[in-house]
């Protein structure tokens, strides 16, 4: 009975966060801190900071992984599932409904949809600005970021991104391996190292076996699951950084058009919760509610496996200087990949003239300097597009 009460409490608290957490991954971590650490005292500050650091180290949606980790520590695997459902379901449902709204109509040609594309320009530019200052603040890491952007733009394939991330990790290992490792505290989690190793094995097995199954048993939903599982497995930085991976996995295949992709991405900025629920929209456009369900499960499954697999080992691994050095290089490359995505497909599809540039610049200023909430900027962009369209 106590376990059930704890699981329901986790579900209720995470659902409240899923309905109110606007502003992207960094803002989500602030909401989590206020709710889980300061108000409910489910974790102490050091343990929370360590969990955030671990999830920044792992690929996938960092804020969702922090929520899953808190649920796992608080209530085991069912607690982790409850935390994920509560935080993810509200925005996933809204994004799937938006997909139904635009289908079968001429909505994509409406002025307010073009305004959402301009919002996407401002939002991603803000992400590049903020992440660049944090993850590429010096000459060597800025160079890694620019080289990553150039490589991805000149060789626009999913393989190029993997090669760039790997090369950046090697560069970070060489350049920053002598950096002093950050000391972290041990945290007790209800997952054994054996179970953690099993999670990591399943994660790797799915990553390599799904493409083979996709070829052996042609199926749209299996292909969708494979593409989005891979995107959730290989993107560092979460949130906006998954954009180029998703675009290259879904648009060339014809599952969604570029216009649908950008419209959904712009709409995703107006809803609370994780940005990865953008995939619910992609799945719904491509295959109705079944596609939305498959896409959502696929993009978040790696987060479950990685958090469950890494938690039993995190203190040991993150204390190693070479691991932190490699991560420094990878994070710089993430900035470059996002910069490339800002140009193509976002800028090339949304900015059609001086007026579009002016609106996007105003929206960018509203985000960066006026520090308005993203949902306000989304409404402003949609209204500007509708008025001028």
UniProtKB/TrEMBL annotation:
Output the InterPro entries linked to this UniProt entry. Chr_Tranpt_l_chain (IPR014047), Chromate_transpt (IPR003370)
- Its domain of life reads Bacteria
- Family assignment from sequence similarity: Belongs to the chromate ion transporter (CHR) (TC 2.A.51) family.
Pfam families xrefs: Chromate_transp
State the name under which the record lists this protein. Chromate efflux transporter
What does the record say about its membrane topology? Multi-pass membrane protein
Q: Where in the cell is it found?
A: Cell membrane
Q: Where are the transmembrane segments?
A: 12-33, 77-100, 112-132, 144-175, 195-216, 266-286, 293-316, 322-343, 355-388
Q: What is the lineage of its organism?
A: Bacteria, Bacillati, Bacillota, Bacilli, Bacillales
Going by the UniProt record, its keywords in alphabetical order are:
Cell membrane, Membrane, Transmembrane, Transmembrane helix
NCBIfam families, A to Z: 2A51
What is the first-listed, main subcellular location in coarse terms?
membrane
């Amino acid at each position: 009975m106590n376990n059930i009460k704890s699981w329901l409490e986790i579900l209720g608290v995470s659902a409240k966060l899923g309905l109110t957490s606007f502003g992207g991954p960094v803002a989500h971590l602030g909401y989590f801190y206020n709710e889980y650490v300061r108000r409910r005292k489910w974790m102490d500050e050091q343990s929370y900071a360590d969990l955030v650091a671990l999830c920044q180290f792992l690929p996938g949606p960092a804020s969702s992984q922090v929520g899953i980790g808190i649920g796992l520590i608080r209530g085991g695997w069912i607690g982790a599932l409850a935390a994920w459902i509560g935080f993810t379901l509200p925005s996933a449902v809204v994004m799937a409904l938006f997909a139904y709204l635009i289908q079968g109509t001429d909505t994509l040609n409406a002025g307010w949809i073009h305004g959402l594309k301009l919002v996407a320009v401002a939002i991603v530019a803000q992400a590049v600005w903020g992440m660049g200052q944090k993850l590429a603040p010096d000459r060597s890491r800025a160079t890694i970021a620019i080289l990553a952007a150039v490589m991805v733009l000149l060789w626009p394939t999913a393989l190029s991104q993997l090669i760039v991330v790997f090369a950046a990790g090697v560069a970070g290992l060489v350049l920053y391996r002598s950096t002093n490792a950050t000391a972290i505290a041990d945290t007790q989690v209800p997952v054994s190292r054996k179970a953690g190793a099993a999670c990591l094995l399943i994660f790797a097995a799915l990553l390599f076996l799904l493409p083979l199954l996709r070829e052996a048993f042609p199926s749209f939903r299996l292909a969708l699951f494979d593409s989005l599982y891979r995107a959730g497995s290989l993107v560092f930085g979460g949130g906006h950084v998954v954009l180029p991976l998703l675009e290259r996995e879904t648009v060339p295949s014809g599952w969604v058009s570029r216009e649908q992709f950008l419209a959904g991405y712009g709409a995703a900025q107006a809803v609370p919760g994780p940005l990865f629920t953008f995939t619910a929209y992609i799945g719904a456009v491509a295959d109705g509610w079944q596609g939305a369900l498959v896409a959502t499960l696929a993009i978040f499954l790696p987060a479950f496996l990685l958090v469950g697999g890494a938690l039993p080992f995190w203190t040991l691994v993150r204390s190693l200087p070479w691991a932190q050095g490699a991560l420094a290089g990878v994070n710089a490359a993430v900035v470059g990949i996002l910069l490339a995505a800002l140009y193509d497909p976002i800028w090339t599809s949304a900015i059609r003239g001086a007026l579009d540039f002016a609106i996007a610049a105003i929206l960018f200023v509203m985000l960066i300097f006026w520090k308005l909430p993203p949902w306000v900027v989304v409404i402003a962009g949609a209204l500007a597009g509708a008025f001028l369209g």
